[in-house]
Structure formats: structure tokens, C-alpha cells
Amino acid sequence: MLRTTLAQLRAHAGRVLASCLAVVIAVAFVVATLVLNSSASASLLRAVGAPFTASAAVVTADEGADPATAASALRGAEERVRALPGVAQVAADRQTGVQVRLPGRTGSSSAQADAVTAEGPLRWERTGSGRLPRASGEVAVSDRLGAAVGDELELSVPQDGDAPAATAARVRVVGVVDLRGDPTAGLQGRLFATDADVRAWGAPDPSRLRVAAAPGTDGADLAGEVAGAVEGALVVRTGEEAAQDVASAFTGDAAALTSVLLVFGAVAVLVAGLVIANTFAVLLAQRTRELALLRCVGATRGQTARSVLLEAAVVGLLASLAGAAAGVGLAAVVARVAADADSPVPLGTLDVPLHALAVGVVLGTVVTVLAALAPARAATRVAPLAALRPLVPAPVRSRGGLVRLVAGAALTVPSAAVLAWSSSRGALEPAVLAGALSFVGVVLLAQRAVPAVVGLAGRLVRRGGVPARLAAGNAVRNPRRTAATATALLIGVTLTTAMVVGASSTRATAEDLLEAGYPTDVVVSSWEGTVDAALLERLERVPGVAGVVPALEGEVSLGAAGTTTVTGVDPARAGAVVRSQQRVPLPRPGELVVPGYAAESLGLSSGDVVPAAAQGGTPVPLRVVVAPDSQQGSIAAAADLLRADPAAAVRGAWVRLDDGLSAEGQAEAVDAVTEVVAASLPSSAVSGVVAVRAAFDQVLTTMLLVVTGLLGVAVVIALLGVGNTLALSVVERRQESGLLRALGLTRGQLRALLAWEALLVAGVAGVLGVALGTAYGLAGTASVLAQQGPVVLDVPWARITGIVVVAALAGVLASVLPARRAARTSPVAAIAE
User: How far apart are CA 499 and CA 777, in angstroms?
Assistant: First the structure.
């Protein structure tokens, strides 16, 4: 049988093409997903964690350590670490904030000044043009700063860590540092100077130490020695751990998104498995007489079954290898497009892990063999002589149909309840398991549900003439065939809809969470002087600014809790400026909103009433409201703060930008605000927090676009399933089609009949798939994001409607080839078979 099977494959290679194509697409989907996920993670890690890639150890201050103690510990650790054997280089990173005035600008902008790494293995800075600074007065800048090589810049530098300098330093730009691929590059302008200059600008102490191992020295062993050489106020991590922490701090934990993505990949494989099973059913229907003849000449049932399974294994292996190659190619194309589009998620470097290829090949082969089990078993059920006639499928109301109905209900009902419970509590793992089980149950129930719904829909098209009436009758005459035709498209539409709804809800939820974490677009703060009414008016006239609210600042005593700095705003005006009060609620009169970290140090809890008063002020009883996730300082109503501290002055402002501004528009608005503020208050800082939100949003947009594009492949797989099952129905109904032709049905009417039938089945599958996909998409979003905060459920109805229309049209298009095949057969030849 081995030689016979291989000979049949060589002789009839064309008939397994559809099966191969389904396997190729499914495996390509899985491999491309894994490769893109690995490439994005690796590229982002290299870009954001570039300073740490060559580090064996990174020494930083422990969270919560006293800054003075940590600085002293770092100074002492630097000399001890340099003296360790096996150390090739130690980089003491220093950074400070400066105000930069560009040529032709009247104002200045805030920037971060970093000490460029000395020559050696730890130097990570690379220039896109020019060179790195070598002498005092030279700087290299990032693209965000907007300066070019040769420009002369004026810097306002601090004399110490708190107060700004009275004098300015002039520096010359000698290079532009290439930070492409780093999503943080657009958050703030950066410049790189010599270590001596950065020390003079207010950073005498290093913020961290990076340690490189000498050739032949094990990095892990050196990290252990470094850990033993530093004091308790410091933390030692490997370079890889430090890079991971930086990447996670920017993108958050991507494990949940990756898990959901792989779940969708598994469902896509399920789609492919059903398509493969239908394809083999088509092949076996076409080969019924051939298999029967083999049985007649002595082939046993076992040999026949093994022949079918061997054919499936060969097809699965070859197609899986092709699919793995196609998946890598697809990932390369997506990475190239993302690189050309200057995507915030770096995908320029393609990372192809071996496990991605192995998973794709093994999964494709195994799924193909498993999908062929049922057709192989069906091929051996019929006696050899009886098999010389086409197989008549068992009715839905058979014992097997009853088993599928009971099994479907048993899987769907409890798993759907578990899915709802898990989603509401943000329990991802049980939600994924429950979702998979419920979906399998839905597929089993579709054997009964789809024909019934198709029958109802058929009543709507009976006025479409003879072909439409015949199609409505045919669609319900063989429920098993109708269900098989609709199932593949149902799964594809469900999968696509779930991703569309999930992506839309994820975006809405993420935007809500970002606005909650960064509620103010731009924050203006003054080190010296006050923000007067004239400056506030000029800020309101800046293009792109939607609203401005002044922010008072005062130092008040809270009784036994101690003294703290309090910001005062008008709650009514501030409510129109901030974008969210979810994590940073605005105070009502008589309230003091205290961030969680400050409440812990002050010993305060929500509901406490403290007497707020400054020297010469009237004690004002304020009820404490603790905001655990707030990163801002304590906030009170402006009227309450002025009563407690009459000397409180307006030392800042909160600015809201216009809605709908692009990332470039937001950056321009922030620069314009910075220039206006710097012209009036040189000793001030402007924080464009909106840029942080924009960067996060761009990362999310790119990731969702990649995922949605990949999941579109499931629709192609579903179309193959529809085409295969329609082809099977044509094979089964050759005599019926011939009889209709003999009774007067024209070729055009026969093609129209199959098109109407496909439209009915595809339309019903599309509607049911959209309903299921919407439910799964909302549940998936809730299970991933419920623990992060309130989940915003968003259903893009325009896209959902488009999916239904596309599904119906796809069904009609998939019927073209089977309809042409049926119309070509002469009535006499069809009836004679």
C-alpha cells in the first residue's frame, strides 16, 4: 500500500492541492505570528535596552532608598567594582535636565543631558550623522531636539540639583545620535556630552553603573562578584535583566497579549483542521470507486485506512514545510513594511526562533493526520461492492447527530458560564480554556443550529425566481451538508470578528488607562517666579491648546502627619482640562487628595481629617482622599489652599491640547507652549506628558494592526473550506444536477442555484459568526485587561457590518468554480453515473 499511496500522490498531485493550500496557510499563520512576536520583542529589547546589551552587570539604587545614601553608595561602589578581576570597563552613567535654546528660537525647551559612554565595549551610542563629543562644549543630540550638526545651542544648566543656574553654557552640535527603533526617543529631546560637562551641569553622582566583563570572564559569575562588592542600598542585575525591566516599564507586561495571540493562532489551526477534514472528504468522495476497487482486489479495511492516513501525513509534512517557509516570508514582509513606515514598534530585524519552525511543521503535520482520521474511517465503513456507488451521508437526526448535540450542549453551557465568570475577574488562563471548550461546543451545535437558521433565511429569498426557490429547498434538504459548508466560514468570521471587537475594545480600554495614568496633557512648573495672568492668556492662544488652568503651590502643615507641598486648583476649571479622574481624582471643597506613596510616608488613610495650615494661615480641616495609583503630588481646592496658606502662589499650569491632534501636532503644540513659557519664565519646566500617551498609543496601534492583518488569513482558510464543501456537494449531487438540467434548468440557472445556496449559507454563517465573535472579543478583552482597570467595551458596528457583507460575497465567490464544474457536465453523463 505504501507504493500504491505514493504512486497515487504522484499521479494525482493536483487533487491534493486544496488540502496542501489549507495546511500551508494555517502553518504560515502560526509561524508568522511566532516569528513576528519574537522579532518585535527582540528588536524592542535591543532598541530600548541598548545601553545594557554589552553589560554583564548593572548597579542601581534600591527602590525606596534615601537618595543621598544611594548616591554615596554608588560613589563607593564604583571604585570597588573597577578593582574586581575580570572587569573590562565600568561606565558611570550620569544624566540631568537642562533647558535648551535652539537657533532662531526665542524660548527654550526641556531636554535630558546624558554623559556619553567612554570608548570601550559599553559604548552603545551610534550617530546617524556627525560624531560623538570628544571635548568640553561639544554635544550630540537626538532627532527629537530638532538641531543639526554645526548648530550652536544655549543651555540653562543647574548649579545644584534644585536651583537653576544664572548663567548659560554655549555648546556646539557635532553629531546626531541614531535612536531609531526606540519608542522612547520621541518623548523628550536628548543630548549627549562629555562626562565632565554633565558633571558641571548638575550631575556629580552617577545614576547607575554598567559593568562589562573581560574576554574569557563569565558574565553571570562577574555579576555575582559585583553583587558581593556593593552595599545594601544598591541592587545588582544582569544586563539582560536591566534591558527587560526597561522594556517592560515602557510596554508593560506583554505576556497577556501574547497568550491571547497564540490562542487565536490555535483557533486558526482549528479552522485549518476542519478545512483539511472537509478537503479529504471531498477527495474521498471523488475516489469512492477507486477505493472500492482496491477493496475488491484484496485491500483490507486497515490497509485502506492506513493508505489515507499515510497520504495525509505526506501531504501534511510537505505542506507544513512550505507553510513554515511562507510564514517566515510573511513575517519578513510585515517587518519590512513596518520598518519603511517608521513604526514605533521596531521590526527591522527579523528573529526566527527554531521553536517557531518546529511548532509550525509538527502542528501542521499532526493536525492534517488527525483531520484525516474521520474521512479514513468513513472510507472503510462501506462494503466493497456497495462502495462502488457514492456514499450517502447519515442524517443529522442519526445516533451520531444526537451524540454531537448532547456533547455540544455539555461543552457550551458550563464553559460559557466559566468564561463569563473568568472574564469579569480578569482570570486569563481559565478564560482561555473555557473559551476554547465553549467554541468547540458551538461548532458541534452548529450541526443543528445552522440548517434551522438557513431555513428561516430561505423564506426571504423565495421571490428570487426558480433558482432561489430551489436553493432555499436544497439548503435545508441536506442539513449535514449545509452545516459542513457553513462551519468553516462560521469559524473564520467568528475569529475575525473577535479580533476586530477585541482590538477596538483593547484600544478604547488602553486609551482610558493611559488617560487615567497621564490625565494632564502638558504640565508647566516654575522653579522661580510665578505664572501671571498674562502668561496664562498667551498659553490659551497657542495653536493646539484647548484649555489652561492655573496651579497654585503652597507648603502646609498637616498636624501630626508633618509638612507637605500641596497643589491647588479650581476643581470646576480643572475638570475641563484633565482627561480622566480615574486614578487622580480632583478634590472637592474640603478634600485633600494624597497619592499613595505620600499617604504611606505621612501615615494617612482615606477618611482622615487633618488640619492644614501654614505659618500665618488659618487651620483648614481637610478630609483625606488617598489615590493609590497617582504619581502626582497632593492636591486641594485652590480656595482651601489659599485659606490655609495665604502665601500660596501660582507656580504652574495644567494645559489641555485639542482633541484629534496627530503625534506631530502634539509635539508642535508642546514645543510652542515651551517656547512661550521659556520667554517669560526661563527658570521653568514644561512636561509634555501627552507625548507619553502618544508613544504608548502608537505601539498599541502597530501591534494590533499586525495581529489583525495576520488574523485576516483565517478568512482565506475559511474560503477554502467553503469552496471544498461546495465542491463536495457538487460531487454528491451530480445526478440531481443532471436531472434538473434534463427537466429544463439552464446552465445559467444551475450556476445561479448554487450561488443562491452559497449566499444563504454564507450569509447565515456571517451573521452567526459576528454574534459569536462579538461575544468572544468582549470576553477576551475583559479577561486580559480587567485587572488593569475598568474595561471599556467598544463594538465597531461599521466594521461588523462589513464583515457580514464580505462573508456573504466570499461565499458566492467560493461557489464559482463548483458551479462551473456542475454546469459543464452534460445531463446524460450526470444521470448515467
Answer: 6
CA distance 769 to 490: 5
d(CA 128, CA 126): 7
Per-residue confidence (pLDDT) for residue 296, from 0 to 100: 77
- Residues 552-575 have pLDDT tens digits of 998 888 888 888 889 999 998 998
| Alpha-carbon 148 to chain mean position | 35
Dmax (CA) of the chain: 111
Comparing 197-201, 253-257, 600-604, 717-721, the range with the smallest average pLDDT is 253-257
449531487: which residue's cell? 733
Average pLDDT of the chain, as a whole number: 78
392-423 residue pLDDT tens = 554 545 555 677 778 888 888 898 898 888 88
Give me the pLDDT at residue 505, please: 83
* Pair 701, 694: CB distance under 8 Å: no
CB neighbour list of residue 827: distance below 8 Å, 6 or more residues apart: 738, 739, 741, 742
State whether residue 627 is helix, strand or coil.
Answer: strand
- H or E segment at 479? helix 479-517
Extract the C-alpha cell encoding 813.
465567490
SS3 at position 631: coil
3-class DSSP state for residue 738? helix
Query: For residue range 340-360, what is the model confidence (pLDDT) as tens digits?
Result: 655 555 555 677 888 888 988
Tell me the CA distances in angstroms from 370 to 270, 275, 338, 364, one per residue in order: 11, 12, 37, 10
DSSP 339-367: HHTT-SS--SS----HHHHHHHHHHHHHH
- Alpha helices by DSSP H, 252-372: 255-286, 288-296, 301-340, 354-371
Query: Do 607 and 624 form a contact (C-beta atoms < 8 A)?
Result: yes
Encode pLDDT of 69-124 as tens digits: 778 888 888 888 888 998 999 999 998 888 787 787 655 677 889 999 999 999 98
Cell of 382: 462501506
Q: Is 537 exposed, middle or buried (0-12, 13-18, 19+ CB in 10 A)?
A: exposed
The three three-digit cell numbers of residue 738, written as one number = 443532471
DSSP string, 755-776: HHHHHHHHHHHHHHHHHHHHHH
The residue type of 48 is V
This prediction's pTM: 0.64
Per DSSP, what are the bridge partners of residue 567?
553, 635
Residue 100 and residue 170: Cα distance in Å, rounded? 10
**Percent composition of the chain: helix, strand, coil (DSSP 3-state, to 5):** 60, 15, 25
Radius of gyration for the chain, computed over Cα atoms and rounded to the nearest angstrom = 34
Amino acid at 534: A
CA gap 742, 262 in Å, rounded: 52
